[in-house]
Write a structure and sequence with these properties.
It contains four helices and no strands. It has 93 residues and is mostly helical. The relative contact order is 0.07.
């Protein structure tokens, strides 16, 4: 396979960063852009990189505080099922 030099000046330009970094941009456009860069072996710029999977630090802190106040573990699927069942019986579900 031939090696081709790619000029990343346009990819790293502020205009493209504003366009692709817009949170309202259609996710299919962003997905296609990521795919093209990955297929070409070009490192993803910060503006198009995905966020880390999982809960944010703030959400983890809120969950930990709730668990400490109520003495339960909301991460347990059994506890979540029991809480959902209780809510359904009380007409909140």
């Amino acid at each position: 396979m031939a090696t081709i030099a790619v000029d990343d000046t346009i990819i790293l330009s502020p205009r493209v960063a504003d366009y692709m970094g817009d949170p309202k941009r259609d996710r299919r456009v962003k997905t296609g852009f990521r795919l093209a860069l990955e297929c070409l072996g070009i490192p993803l710029p910060d503006y198009i990189a995905r966020k880390e999977a999982g809960r944010t630090d703030g959400a983890r802190a809120i969950t930990a505080a709730f668990n400490a106040d109520h003495g339960i573990n909301t991460h347990s699927k059994h506890v979540r099922a029991a809480l959902a069942d209780l809510a359904a019986r009380e007409g909140r579900g």
